[in-house]
Structure prediction request, 304 residues.
Amino acid sequence: MFTVCTSRVVLCSWGEQDGGLDGANCLKIIGGWRMGAEAVEPESPLEHFGVEVRLERERLGISRKELAKEAHCGYSLVAKVEAGQRVPPPGFAEACDRIFPGSHGRFTRLWRLVLKCAFPPSFRKYVELEEKATVIRRFNCQLVPGLAQTEEYARALMATGRARNQEELVQARMVRQRILAREHPPQLWIVLDEQALRRMFGGPIVMKGQLERLLELADAKPHVVQVVPEGEDSFHGIVSPFGLLSFDDGTDVVHVDGFLGEQLLAEPKDLASAEEAFTLLCAEALPPKESSALVRSVLKERYS
Prediction:
């Protein structure tokens, strides 16, 4: 337990504008805090979340160590969250609402905003639907799909791109994976080309951990991992990553990630085409047990 000190003088104040969550400017900051004679304002929702945590913690006289204990995390995570360098897990925001008097769920709401704004606008609707899906089917011929990526693999992959918020994207991707830890998780069905196992990001150690993660998923019900083996005399012809989301109400949605961006499709003809493509890919891929054997073979051959 800790004692809340309410005698400290509050030198910092913030204003925030409630409103919709869509768009690049989904959070408008109209206040600031002063460090010496210089006004400093956060540049992103993630930084804003960290500032709000720090200000409230210091106002109440709570140490980082005490907050870490209440949030069941390490001191370093608190420091990184306050510095705007780490997307906090949902339990962190819930802990802030619990121990900071008068929060009324404010930090949980800010956390949702941080997570949403970390993703490109074209991807945000997909993430919302993914959280509600009962079956998630994904195909990728070049990369391991995001829901199956390790943090190290995701970070190495992001480093090849040009996004300025790479760390936010990595942490948001890790938070997305919490749906697989539910008591009743959605079924994740992955089909990927063998070249995705051999294409190296981050070096042998990172790839070793990534392939081990795939094997963990393959062994965990209700998930399925299938690999399309390399062959000189055959090619399925599908190069764009795509996936299907299925829901209890039976209305599927197709997600296509291409050169011109991401699309969500729900027209019957698009659903039929995606269903046919995924079914054919499953038929060309090795059965689950043989796929796991191939993953182990590549793991031993290239990364051990």
